[in-house]
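Hello,

I think I submitted the S-adenosyl-L-homocysteine job twice by accident. Can you confirm which output corresponds to this input? Input:
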Amino acid sequence: MDEKNMGKVWLVGAGPGDVGLFTQRGREVLEQAEVVVYDALVGQGILGLIPESAELIFAGKRAGNHFLRQEQTNQVLLDKALEGKRVVRLKGGDPFLFGRGGEELELLAEHNVPFEIVPGITSAFAVPAYNGIPVTHRDFCSSVHIITGHRRADHSYDIDFEALVRTKGTLVFLMGIAALPDICGGLLQAGMDPEMPAAVLERGTTAAQRRISGTLGTLEEICSRTTVQTPAIIVVGKVCSVADQFAWYEKKPLAGVKVMVTRPKELISGLSSRLRLQGAEVLELPSIRTVARADDGELQSCIEKLGAGEYDWLVFTSPSGVRIFFEKLFAHGDVRMLAGVKIASIGQGTSKALAKVGLKADFVPTVYDGVTLGKELAQILPEGVRVLIPRAAIGNHELIEGLSAVPGIRITDIATYDTEYTASQVIDVKKSFEEGDVDFAVFTSASTVRGFAGSVEGLDFSKVKAVCIGRQTQEAAAGYGMRTWTAEKATLDSLIKRVGEAARETEES
Ligand code: SAH
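Support: Only one job matched these inputs. Its output is below.
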């Protein structure tokens, strides 16, 4: 094999679940990946960051079934690297902590395949932290120990309970839920105080996070009364006593709420980061993508006419519309081409996009939708006005109908971009909604509703709770049979507030 053509493997820790706990380095590497081999424990939010072009290989274990045996996984990494690919091996938490990361490197090293390690935030520390448990505390202990509760092939444990009790340190057990009775029993038998605080921490750093607190003597019995959801860790030690006092994650306004956001990729992050700041778990599903149309000369000619003073008003109905129009305009000239032209913007997001090119809208409707824009703008436009509307190919008719009320108006409605629907390769959206794993879908336009509906096959839409911006968006969602909530105003703040209200309403019912 020629050295130059050899690919490379990055062994990357994805962290415990929350996409915010994925490292900067991990993101950079993932963005460049050509092949991604991932495990079941990798957070959905992180799977959403995998580039669409990457080949995806699931190497996890589901319901006891190994999709790939360890040797097969090792072989896949080697084969893909030898094909010259950039391979990312994505693992939950930190790749070297009970992640078999070391084993996966052996074969690569034997074949001189280059590799890098990107450490991850381990669940052993992050999950207690998200539950208000500091793994060490000067008043309580001077060490912390991470132990696997996994049994060997002959069903025996490799745990020296007496040694653990002697350390007087905090004990964190991973993969230990099935072994909970043995772990508690082993520690008690080795002489640990039955009153020692202990906790089971389920699905940490996600919307499904839950803490079951007790003592070494009671934990097993408390857990037997409920279904413990995995993944989960067991923490034993005095530090568990401060959990209720220090718990913070569950107090965030949108804690426990899992939201799916469907927006074109370039706009998705603003809304998502604000939802996350409020404590929601956000799944980004770019169900629609905007693609600039190849110009057959029509847009160019409109821009030339604009420069020649042949239009009085420019109307924008989306941030993408603004971006695509100005890319074209700047290829020919600069903002002086707009001298004397008035500008209408459908709402905040569009106005923001205008601000980026140094422009302020002369007109914004009171309600940010096409119908209101058409109606209200028509009231101020003079007779015979000439209007240019560069927008999506699937733009709605209501705007044009509203404007048509102006006598003698001349409208040039030009399609500058198409809206393409994309489906997620990694997240089973249908299952997520049907099993109630996702609480809400958030829609910011009717086209995202249609994009979402078109990209999930066979989903019973009455299972989807939709929080929408704008009446048209709400109508589109309701049209599919979704249960809907509409933001009072067409702003992200108002939308986020509505998510909180919907969450409280559905929790009560
Ligand atoms: N390398 C991983 C651990 C792999 S072993 C890490 O550093 O986190 C898998 C075990 O990790 C699970 O059985 C569970 O005990 C724990 N685990 C991983 N993610 C978790 C989460 N979000 N919440 C609770 N436990 C988790």
